[in-house]
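Form 7-S
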Amino acid sequence: MTRYRIEHATTYSYDDAVTDSYGLAHLRPRTLAWQQVLGHELAIDPAPDDLVTREDLYGNAQTYFQITRPHTELSVRAVTEVEVTTPELDSDLLASAWERARPTESSEETAWEAVDFTFPSKKVDIPAEVVDYAARSFPAGREIGAAVVEFMHRVHSDFTYASGSTTLTTTVAELMESRRGVCQDFSHVMLAGLRGLGLAGRYVSGYLATTPPPGRPRLVGADATHAWVGCWVPGLDWVYLDPTNDRLIDTAHATVAWGRDYDDVTPVKGVIYTEAEKSRLRVSVDMAPVEDADPDS
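Output:
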């Protein structure tokens, strides 16, 4: 078990006053069998006129806010303390044939909850080439655990991590051609492949604690928001895989929210009314073990 203090700061700056701002944030981590939320605070400056937090369709904590005071800078800062363990997996359930993990063909009680994650979504198109690509890891009768892990290995090795190589509008078809992207792109490709085979794949947004190189100090703010994939397995619920880092999730991963793709769980997004012509976005994430955290910062 590892305890973390996570600080996620988002700051928008504008060259003219914003007169009205509507925001939506997914910043409170989920309480799960392997993750406990020990504390969470959200600070928004300027102070919002309206602020409400509620659960969305998938059980994520969504915070809506509106600011009507004119401002040229908006700061959204979340500080959370969590305890994380490595999810337990049942090897017998992972040994079942992958075809039995299709929710639409399963008699499992919870299968209906997974069906929504078998369809294309706004950012997860399912071109024929991604289905063919995924199918090589899923020959008839293969164990679901071995198949999804091999698929993760292949995405990790066949795609190059390249910051700035994609945008929020990049499609899976374009990713299959370029074979370049970042964590959300790796996840969207894997989701498209799973869904194209009739399996349920959910997009997970969270944080990844990084370790500095040997002999180097830990840099505050060097961690990042991250994305990985869940695949539904009958009897087991979901198995979570991180194709960017080629590993199952463990105590370095803190889960915030999940949905069909990035659009469902964007950390902070919104709509503003302004005559500003330029804006600047700054994001800083720090995920520090509690013993290293400064409680006064």
